[in-house]
Amino acid sequence: MRRFFLPPHALAGNRLTLTGSEAHHLATVLRLTPGQTVELFDGQGAVHTALLQVVDHDRVMAEITATRLEAATVGSPLTLAQCMLKGKKMDVLVQKATELGVQTFAPLMSRYCENHGDRNRQQERWQRIMLEACKQCRRTTPMRILPVMPLARLDAALYLHRLVAWEEERKAPLSVDFTGRPGPICLVVGPEGGLHADELQVLQQGQFTAFSLGPLILRGETAALAAAAIVQFLAGTLQPTQTEAAS
Fold first, then answer.
1. b/e for 39-58, b at 16 or more Cβ within 10 A?
2. Model's pTM, two decimal places?
């Protein structure tokens, strides 16, 4: 069943009205028609089943027939603090981090970053990519995307577990038992040029622990996805979850 995002303002009682890009996609791209059933997620964990009633190119109206809750409790929510990468690599990371269940995406500026695009346009594009990924992977709570900020402004005090993937670390693997001590996790990954020694020192002063992803030199986006997947596995976030019926 096709799934769409339901903005809060679009719902009135058990009836909803979609406009803008979601209505265009439903009516013009997918060519759905009145009488068909779709799913909509509200970003708070609720998933609504709805019967389409009016389908125009710029407006869709439907009636909700059932609601269920799919929000999962995460004991160790992950923030992926990624130093800006070149080109469209950040777009790919936003999409894949959403699919991996990363709670917060924090784009950082560091000394060797080369991405200097329009920040407002980047933020808007990342939001669109993130919502599309939510629909594709059937995630009900969108990933939070923070504004781009300098690495030095990352607030280490917000996290119980603090990790940084560092290409010069040769001995320490990523092997933390997060399930034994659950709490917020921050994972920092550097840009293509790596982290400067001064930046690593700043992170270590914030009690970030450097770890290795193995003997091979990974691209920035590869390192980020590999590290995020390992952390999510060690935190138990990749375990199956059960849905909860709405009252």
1. bbbbbebbbbebebeebeee
2. 0.83
